[in-house]
Design goal:
alpha/beta, seven-stranded parallel β-sheet, two-stranded parallel ribbon, 10 helices, 14% strand
């Protein structure tokens, strides 16, 4: 059986298909909003920062006629997450979910604040899982839809990443693959989007104060959010379950399946420097 592909399709009852995007106030999430709006999709933008969402909605309104809704929600708050999931599950027009909200932490696991680690897992694991469950039944009923989990190349090299960050991204990869198998034949697509270093605000948060990550990582390894999203949507149209933007990163992905290369990388001096740079 061929893998399902996805592209925006107008609803039978009229009106554009709708995409729900978490983490939409900046970075990859905001870029998904721009590119999907230009494709004529209606949007539901989800994030904590109302002012940033309102500014983006105004920007999109000036360049597209597609309707834009705002959902202010802290996805790490279980009550707020559940309320959002209930609202989404009551709809019948959601054709795409992009779970893009994410954070990164520095510091050794045993020394970092427990609350920060739990919040990361709530954002990377619990929220995508709950929201996928909220929208999936309506997609299956229509025989059309897609879910993109914005993961990371770190999910393929979790031994070289921080324990919670890399492991949470590995979960998203496995979650997407498992759902793709479970829903085979329903017309619903799943994608794990696994970018490498991407120019966003992720590395400009207070968490990274004193760490010049851009100086440590060669410029050739940085991707733009525009490229990451473009390759994601092209991959979705081609039915790719895993998308790794950038040729250099696709080469690295090939190493991820080789246990000898992973063992070598774990002993590589740059890998040790990576761990030392995040000491509290």
């Amino acid at each position: 059986m061929s893998k399902p592909t996805w592209s925006p399709v107008a609803r039978k009852g009229g009106g554009p298909p709708v995409a729900v995007i978490t983490g939409a106030s900046s970075g990859i999430g905001a870029e998904f909003a721009r590119q999907l709006a230009s494709a004529g999709m209606g949007l539901v933008l989800v994030a904590r920062r109302r002012e940033r969402l309102a500014k983006l909605a105004q920007e999109l309104a000036s360049s597209s006629s597609a309707p834009v809704e705002i959902e202010v929600c802290d996805l790490t708050d279980r009550e707020s997450l559940e309320a959002l999931a209930e609202r989404l599950s009551s709809r019948s027009d959601i054709d795409l979910l992009v779970s893009s909200a994410g954070v990164a932490l520095v510091g050794r696991f045993a020394a970092a604040e427990v609350s920060r680690q739990i919040s990361l897992l709530d954002l990377h694991v619990i929220a995508p899982t709950r929201l996928t469950r909220a929208v999936l039944p309506q997609m299956i009923a229509r025989g059309h839809g897609a879910v993109i989990q914005v993961s990371s190349l770190a999910g393929m090299f979790s031994r070289l990443s921080s324990p919670t960050y890399g492991s949470s991204k590995a979960y998203l990869n496995a979650f997407s693959e498992s759902l793709a198998e479970e829903t085979s034949g329903t017309g619903v697509c799943f994608q794990a989007l696994c970018p490498g270093f991407t120019v966003t605000e992720l590395h400009s948060t207070p968490e990274f104060d004193g760490i010049d990550i851009h100086a440590r990582i060669p410029g050739v390894l940085w991707l733009s959010a525009e490229r990451v999203v473009r390759e994601s949507l092209v991959g979705l149209a081609e039915g790719k379950r895993v998308v790794v933007p950038g040729r250099r990163y696709r080469w690295l992905r090939a190493l991820a399946g080789n246990r000898y290369s992973i063992a070598l990388a774990c002993r590589w001096r740059a890998g040790r420097r990576w761990r030392r740079r995040v000491e509290p």
